[in-house]
Design a protein that fits this description.
The chain is an alpha+beta fold. It has helices at 9-14, 16-29, 67-75; strands at 2-6, 37-41, 51-55, 58-62.
Length: 79
């Protein structure tokens, strides 16, 4: 499973680094380091919404506050 978080300037201003830190913590807490690959990339082309995140090529718009719900409903549910 691959999660990619945009770290371009627009998403950076919206909290992409906080989202990455939240995801890193949750992945470690669930011992999923070998199952979930977390990475960053520059502009994913969805700058008008929140931080652009892809999960296996499907695009989501997240905030630091919605990251936990995303992780539980989209990531854990698919493992």
């Amino acid at each position: 499973m691959r999660i990619t978080v945009c770290v371009g300037s627009s998403c950076h201003m919206k909290g992409s680094y906080q989202i990455i830190e939240h995801l890193k913590t949750m992945i470690a807490q669930k011992n999923l380091e070998g199952k979930v690959d977390l990475g960053g990339t520059f502009c994913l082309g969805n700058c008008q919404d929140e931080v652009c995140v892809t999960l296996n090529e499907k695009t989501f718009s997240l905030t630091p506050e919605t990251t936990k719900d995303f992780f539980e409903t989209e990531v854990l549910a698919k493992l």
